[in-house]
Amino acid sequence: MDVLLIPGFWLDGASWAPVLGPLEAAGHRVHPLTLPGKDAVDADRSGIGLRDHVDAVVARIDALDGPVVLVGHSGGGAIIHAAADARPDRVARNVYVDSGPLGAGAVINDEIPTDGPDAPLPPWEFFEDADLTDLTDELRTQFRARAVPEPARVTSDPQRLHDERRFDVPVTVIACEFSGDQLREWVAAGNPFVAELGRVRDVDIVDLPTGHWPQFTRPGDLAEALVAAVGR
């Protein structure tokens, strides 16, 4: 299976390095993507919006033969959902790593501070305590050293969707900051936060209790969960 790995905010394709080996050992062809404007700290991010990131994923899908599995971490969840909306007949499964599908008209996070066309990694105080669980001082230093500013418009552009066949694409959610039971309760209660997920017809939820960046805090367990999800 071809597996496309979509990083979250402030990360490039290399951030997936800890999970590549197990996926490849399981026989999969793995494609970690670096999205437009995230190839270097000093890259030109002016004019790059959410749709540019979605289009980059769709272009990679189109360049491959056969079905693909999309894996999106954090803000990458919105991107893979839109890519599945664009190519519902090509996506065998969407895997959301501490993320979920973003509905039409919603934005990923327009509260992130921006600096012109850039949205740099904020101070750690910006994040909730649950985000930072298991992210040691050493890991925080490594993360900040490798962080690339996000294109500012990606944080605030409205999601654009048009094909309800996206709800037929099976989904795995790897739940980190909150438990699978909490997620199921929110869906059952009709919480707007998970309204789009609630419309997906086939949802599998896997608990991986840690903070928002399991590829750093629990890379082995994340790799195991991804291998299982892709294998489904």
Automatic annotation (TrEMBL):
Protein name: Alpha/beta hydrolase
Family matches, as InterPro entries: AB_hydrolase_1, AB_hydrolase_fold, Sec-Metab_Biosynth_Hydrolase
SUPFAM superfamilies in alphabetical order: alpha/beta-Hydrolases
One GO molecular-function entry: hydrolase activity
Coiled-coil intervals: none
Record key words, sorted: Hydrolase
Organism phylogeny: Bacteria, Bacillati, Actinomycetota, Actinomycetes, Micrococcales
One Pfam family here: Abhydrolase_6
Source species of the chain: Tersicoccus phoenicis
Key word NAD present: no
Residues in AB hydrolase-1 domain copies: 3-225
